[in-house]
């Protein structure tokens, strides 16, 4: 089968495996090349394990407040080992599900590391894939089309490389064996905010350092301000408009000390560990792009609105093309690219109604463009905000706070802090 393929997908994460399933549904012969575990970041190091632990944090915090609800819960405490076991078994169940879906759709999964090859005498256009198998053997696949879905990796701060012990990435914290007494989280985006919320519930002293004026800067300003206020109320130290002076890092017996710079102000912050959550770098290195005409800009593969790279038979989807690095965006792009290859899709992909959620406590959800973007584009006709505190529903959910919405001609944008 490997010689008669219509499409090879390099990377079996959310974007890659969903693309492959769509291709199989459309009658295409598809193979997925995956160097690690099918399911990618979302299933093994992202959405799923982090949400499993967030649920533990939520149960813990609710149980601590049980008395207020007329429930007697004594001796409430975290058992990290059991929480990690639960997280692992959720991941394993879903992993089995994805593996089953591949089999059911007759998709060949090749365990190995794929590199795109340039034009050759055997394959006059770029797009063949050379796979280094786990045993070191090499395999060359020559499909009609190729989809690059190699995802992204945690970005380190310059001068502060991850060491897996004190300077941690989001991959590292998912493997922790003990809850740190204190943590400095660099980055107040979705990943930093989720972990800050979780660690605070676990009893860790949390400091968040964010370079922008508020947390969750991609959301409406009001939402970011509200999150900052609520985090501070929970006892999380939030330093906005602030950066880490990595040259001031000192390793001490209790962990690390570093200066945080806020304008003219300089504050020495100490923590047992540092979680760096300053974004993710698309995996564009060492995948053979140099042999092709594929462009990389600001670290991400450049595609057109049909997800085509500069090589007509090579597409790219998901985190590797930058933009909104979300699982449902990756899978939507995978479906779009595969339908384009199959010839049943010729519309450009649209991003103006993407839903986003930060699963912290409180949760934040939004869809569409932000107030700021709508105003800047001159297309906002109305802005409304409603405190959820004023609804009876708030008594059945924890601390609901604010609902704000802007409506404009094309796409309504709604932001919600469900506190
Ligand atoms: P990936 O899932 O990264 O998959 C890429 C795959 O390609 C990997 O399996 C990798 O092993 C493989 N690969 C790479 N190079 C090669 C190669 N050369 N050959 C073969 N295989 C290769 N998104 C949400 O929507 N909701 C969330 O709640 C959410 N939470 C997150 C929490 C965390 C902590 C993190 C880190 C991310 C979270 N995300 C969330 C983002 C989401 O995980 C990503 O957007 C999504 O996984 C991107 O899918 P992808 O297919 O592009 O890449």
From TrEMBL:
Organism: Ferroacidibacillus organovorans
Sequence ranges assigned to domain FAD/NAD(P)-binding in this UniProt record: 6-334
Keywords attached to this entry: Cytoplasm, Disulfide bond, FAD, Flavoprotein, NAD, Oxidoreductase, Redox-active center
Enzyme Commission number, as recorded: 1.8.1.4
Class in the EC hierarchy, top level: oxidoreductase
Domain (Pyridine nucleotide-disulphide oxidoreductase dimerisation) ranges: 354-397
Similarity comment text for this entry: Belongs to the class-I pyridine nucleotide-disulfide oxidoreductase family.
CC cofactor: FAD
Catalytic activity: N(6)-[(R)-dihydrolipoyl]-L-lysyl-[protein] + NAD(+) = N(6)-[(R)-lipoyl]-L-lysyl-[protein] + NADH + H(+)
GO annotation, biological process: 2-oxoglutarate metabolic process
Note: The active site is a redox-active disulfide bond.
The protein, known as: Dihydrolipoyl dehydrogenase
Pfam family, one: Pyr_redox_2
InterPro entries, per the entry: Class-I_Pyr_Nuc-Dis_Oxidored, FAD/NAD-bd_sf, FAD/NAD-binding_dom, FAD/NAD-linked_Rdtase_dimer_sf, Lipoamide_DH, Pyr_nucl-diS_OxRdtase_dimer, Pyr_OxRdtase_I_AS
Keyword Cytoplasm in record: yes
NCBIfam families, A to Z: lipoamide_DH
Highest rank taxon of the organism: Bacteria
GO molecular-function terms, A-Z: dihydrolipoyl dehydrogenase (NADH) activity; flavin adenine dinucleotide binding
Cofactor note: Binds 1 FAD per subunit.
